[in-house]
Amino acid sequence: MAKYKIVHYLNQFFGGIGGEDKADYEPEVREEKIGPGLAMAAALGEDYEIVATVICGDNYFGENLDLATDTIVEMVKKYEPDVFVAGPAFNAGRYGVACGTICKAVEERLGVPVLTGMYIENPGADMFKKDIITVSTGNSAATLRKSMPKIVNLVKKMATGEEILGPSIEGYLERGIRVNYFAEERGATRGMKMLIKKMAGEPFETDLPMPKFDRVPPAEPIKDIKTAKIAVVTSGGIVPQGNPDHIESSNATKFGFYTLEGMDRMSADDYMTIHGGYDRQFVLKDPNLVVPLDVLRELEKEGEFGSLLNYFGTTTGTGTATGSAAKFGDEIGKKFIEEGVDGVILTST
Amino acid sequence: MVKGIEKYGIPVVHLATVVPISKTIGANRIIPAIGIPYPLGDPTQSDEDSYKIREKLVRRALKALQTPVSEQTVFEKDI
């Protein structure tokens, strides 16, 4: 008699129902192991049993998200599993989203440990990797054999309550969780070792991976500069004297728009910087070093460009979360579209 | 912020002192600025010279905004 019970979720394809033509297949339970479940059961050994497999068409799930989730959670509940496994979904987008959604619901509503598997570029991975353990797989089912040992190891750990180690050790996608631990070597030693490896062109693992940033395709250039409306934005923390909106000097949570109306240059009597990340002595004397209004007014007069937007956008760039900065950019961009701005000069200290 | 604005189709030129950061965050038109505490100008020089430096950079920025780019481009010199 097996000690631990597993319920497995599959889509219509891996469940053996059919391809795209069966993608609207409604949720169904079968009290047997199917498809990838066969390999999983064999690898898990006799202490574990897949007591049921839920099969649901990817389109049905996607189009009836709430209903499908409710139905499947009820189906799973009946079997009181020790672990719930969905997929793996490899690079199948709808399947990945379904696996993530159902795993999250089962974990939240039933308190059952859950596990899925996806290729890192599966859209479902981005949506759910922070919430649930998602084993990193290749992009096609041909990689099932390679991912199975990782899945099986994690299922066992979840069932028995053994500690799950970090993503690179266990082979799941990074969840952005930091865990404190005592390293055997101090930071200076680790740093030197990394440097030596780097110089030798060998692979090394950083202690602090940098976040990955999205890309935006370059916008079309300004066609007629003589009529173009130009706007200025800065992350250099230039604000009116007294900082009326209380923009933070570090890790800013807001930005401000301030007038340039009737001004030929940025006056140090009216403007200051609250940026906490650089020596402010020069800019406090001359804010034009960050918001080049004196030059812009001169060039505007000379007809080098159409006109200058009569206010500028500003925040503090130091320590500011990229998420906040993206939000400021979005709000500023929206406003500038309304204003008919043709090009932006953004200055950073 | 650069990308947040540029995604609306408005070209943005980033005058940035630390070019590698500008590249990492994904600015498409980049102009290296002078120094962290004085990106546009040089207060260690005379007011006039400092203004000239600033004028040069702003003129270059206006040129960069009129230049088609297909990938991240650093405008090191006047165009």
Can you give a write-up of this model?
Chain A is of the alpha/beta class and about 350 residues long. In chain A, about 35% of the residues lie in helices and about 15% in strands. Chain A has helices at about 35-45, 60-65, 65-75, 95-110, 125-130, 145-160, 165-170, 185-200, 280-285, 295-300, 320-340; strands at about 5-10, 30, 50-55, 85, 115-120, 135, 230-235, 240, 255-260, 270-275, 305-310, 310-315, 345-349. The relative contact order of chain A is 0.09. The model of chain A has no long low-confidence stretch (mean pLDDT about 95). Chain B has about 80 residues and is an alpha/beta fold. Chain B has one domain (about 1-75). Helix content of chain B is about 40%, strand content about 15%. In chain B, strands 1-2-3 form a 3-stranded parallel β-sheet, with helices on both faces. The model of chain B has no long low-confidence stretch (mean pLDDT about 95). The chains are: A alpha/beta (about 350), B alpha/beta (about 80). Strand 13 (about 345-349) of chain A pairs parallel with strand 1 (about 10-15) of chain B, so a sheet runs across the interface.
The share of residues in helices of chain B is: 25-40%
Provide the succession of SSEs of chain A: EEHEHHEHEHEHHHEEEEHHEEHE
Secondary-structure element order of chain B, N to C: HEHEHE
Derived from helix and strand composition plus strand pairing, the structural class of chain A reads alpha/beta
Oligomer: heterodimer
**Helix/strand/pairing category of chain B:** alpha/beta
The largest pleated sheet of chain A is described as: 6 strands, mixed
Shape of chain B: globular
Average pLDDT of chain A: 94
Sum up the overall morphology of chain A in one term: elongated
